[in-house]
Write a structure and sequence with these properties.
The structure is a single chain. This protein has 12 helices and 7 strands. A 5-stranded parallel beta sheet has the order 2-1-3-6-7, with helices on both faces. A two-stranded antiparallel ribbon has the order 4-5. A hairpin with a 2-residue loop joins strand 4 and strand 5. The longest helix is centred in the C-terminal third of the chain and has 14 residues. With 226 residues, it is an alpha/beta fold. The radius of gyration is 23 Å and the shape is elongated.
Length: 226
């Protein structure tokens, strides 16, 4: 097996990260993997872009927080100048906040720094297979948004009145109309009227769809829970 790997061209990797301990640790680990070669590192977006342009690696590993610059800017510029070179974000920043944005800008993977180095290897192989590498939590969030495109925080605020949002939150928490009426100190008929309006405004077919949408909305926006 090792002989087979030696006959292959190495997978060349550039690392853009301003934490020396991360660069040295990741470089040491990758150099000890079959068929991997770290061909350079940089600490800022401008130096990283220059390095990638000169070295033409197979993969770039990029932090979001760089010296006086942003890894997101680097990813955007890299996508414009060299879209054939996949970028993987390796960051301490919460993936539920930044992963979708990074992917939209052109990144092909997102890994939190609390994951193992073996995860980085998995991500490299995945992006070289033309796959997107993200956690199951981020995948589920994206799928929920695709399934319920009207149900992100901004659209809910625009589509529903304050009272309808209250009812929608409580539906997402699993409450039935009678319990919602008691909690909001209104009649059951009033709650049912709100439910009908919510269904119409969000273009949902029935109450089952309303319940699924409300549950997904709270999962995406846990701060909206009462």
């Amino acid at each position: 097996m090792n002989g087979a790997f030696r006959n292959l061209s190495p997978i060349r990797i550039c690392i853009v990260d301003d934490h020396l301990v991360v660069v040295e640790g990741l470089t040491y680990f990758l150099h000890n993997q079959p068929n991997f070669q770290v061909c350079g590192s940089a600490r800022s977006a401008s130096d990283g872009l220059r390095l990638i342009r000169e070295m033409r690696p197979d993969v770039a590993i990029v932090d979001l927080s760089l010296n006086n610059s942003s890894g997101l800017d680097l990813i955007k510029d890299l996508q414009y100048q060299s879209p054939e070179i996949p970028a993987i974000v390796l960051s301490m920043h919460d993936e539920l906040i930044y992963a979708e944005r990074a992917i939209r800008l052109g990144a092909k993977g997102y890994i939190m720094k609390d994951r193992s180095f073996e995860t980085v290897v998995d991500a490299i192989h995945a992006v070289l297979r033309k796959e997107i590498f993200i956690s199951d939590a981020v995948k589920n969030r994206i799928m929920n948004r695709l399934a319920f495109p009207l149900c992100d925080g901004g659209n809910i605020a625009e589509a529903l009145t304050d009272r309808e949002q209250d009812v929608f939150r409580l539906i997402g928490q699993g409450l039935r109309p009678r319990h919602i009426a008691e909690k909001l100190n209104v009649s059951v008929n009033t709650v049912e009227t709100h439910c009908r309006r919510i269904r119409e405004k969000l273009e949902l077919n029935d109450m089952k769809a309303v319940i699924e949408a409300a549950t997904a909305w709270l999962q995406q926006n846990p701060s909206n829970a009462l």
